[in-house]
Records
---
Amino acid sequence: MGFFSVFYNWQVQRYEKHKSEMQSLGKCPDCRGKGMISVAPAFNDVYISPYECSNCNGSGLYSEWIGRP
Ligand SMILES: [Zn+2]
């Protein structure tokens, strides 16, 4: 039980750090300013094409990301 809360807190802290880094760069934290999310294929026979980041509407801008509803 303790492990999961530690792991969860670690993930939250990591995300918060990432978020503030992206904020200082003015980039969307979800797509890292690319405007697209690319998913690494988990299996060799499965390919998922990159899709537009819905959290910044493909702009890759932090201001767009923070302004989402
Ligand atoms: Zn984005």
Note: The first helix runs from residue 2 to 25.
---
Amino acid sequence: MTTSVGAKSRAQIPARTLRTDRWWRPPVVTGAVLAFFIVYATGRIFMNDYYWVPEFQYLTPVYSPCVSESCVPGSVHFFTILPAMPVFIPIALITFAILAGFRGTCYYYRKAGYRSFFLAPAACAVPEPHKKYTGESRFPLVLLNAHRYFFYGAVLFGLINIYDGVLAFHGKDGGFGIGLGTLIIWVNLVMLWGYTLSCHACRHIVGGKLKNFSKHPLRYAYWNFVSKLNARHAQFAMISLFTVIFTDAYIMAVSAGWISDLRFVN
Ligand code: FES
């Protein structure tokens, strides 16, 4: 039996929707933000430049960790696993794959993408144009279930970002220093960790597969903490998107010499 909106078992309402509010606004705004981010991130990773400020040791999160032999001197903080790349291949390939995979399979972005790009549905009580619904049970959408694995990658990259953040306390004279870039990097770090720890997969990892919490007080405490963050996951998802773009744009501008870093200490 079909359950689509045109099914005979459904109330036959000639109007497309009975909603009279501006239900179309959230999906349009969210879609515009996501489209901007996709265009910005794509342009940025193909730039292959302006991702490192040697004077203050600022490395943009979009290129962290830098693991290609093409990375500019000083920007490799661990080791290289990619050879020197031709200019048209992004050196941030691995970073981008993990971060895009994590965000692209995120439950929040899935909801946002379905509503904004596929109108499936665009809003509650607004019928979708598709005749058939197969959920995420078939290829390619079934691949979205890989989210929990991307979560582990995001945690690893988040730890690397903390290391980058510590290095960013670097002064002109080589000692300790704080600039506006340092603060921007750390605000972004807090938002990124808020986003990562509020992930639904994280909540399941810390509190799932238990018969009762009373025998696992530590996991219960983690689960309570993550659950509180989880209630704000959508906000963390959107705010961290902007903080990543802003951090990257600021470091790009300082690295390219378009602006100078505002220094507070050294
Ligand atoms: S559900 Fe959004 S990051 Fe995991």
Note: The first helix runs from residue 25 to 47.
